[in-house]
Structures are given as structure tokens and as C-alpha cells.
Amino acid sequence: MNNVKKVADMGICVGCADCGGCEHITFKNNELGFPAPIVDENCKNCGECLKKCIYWNSNDN
Questions:
Q1: Could you give the CA distance from residue 42 to residue 22 in angstroms, rounded to a whole number?
Q2: pTM of the entire structure?
Q3: Cα–Cα distance between 56 and 53 in angstroms, integer?
């Protein structure tokens, strides 16, 4: 998996939507009521969303 789902699964996503420019990413409120990225099955795992994510890049992952 080379997409923003990694960030959401790690619990560091805050729903800022910087990754939202991709047609394969939408947002839906999670169980706590906060926006979370949903990556569809057509994702090519190109990693562009991770490059845009300030939380992924700030953790040197």
C-alpha cells in the first residue's frame, strides 16, 4: 500500500484533505466524527497523496 490509507491507519491523519486532489480519494467522517480519507479500489498506489501529506512527511516515513 503506497497511499494515504497508511496515514489514516496509523492514526495521524487529521482530515486536512491535502491529499484530496486525487480522483481515488474521498472523505467520510470516521467513528469519532472527523473526516478521514477513503481510497477506492482503482488506486494505482502512485504515492502522490503521501507526497502531499504534511503528517506523513513530518514523520520521516
A1: 11
A2: 0.80
A3: 5
What distance in Å separates the CA atoms of residue 1 and residue 29, rounded to the nearest whole number?
Answer: 22
Helices marked H in 1-61: 5-10, 48-52, 54-58
Residue 55 per-residue DSSP state: H
Encode pLDDT of 3-34 as tens digits: 999 998 988 898 899 998 899 999 999 888 98
CATH match for 5-58 among 3.30.70, 1.10.150, 2.40.50, 1.25.40 = 3.30.70
- Domain segments of the chain: what residues? 5-58
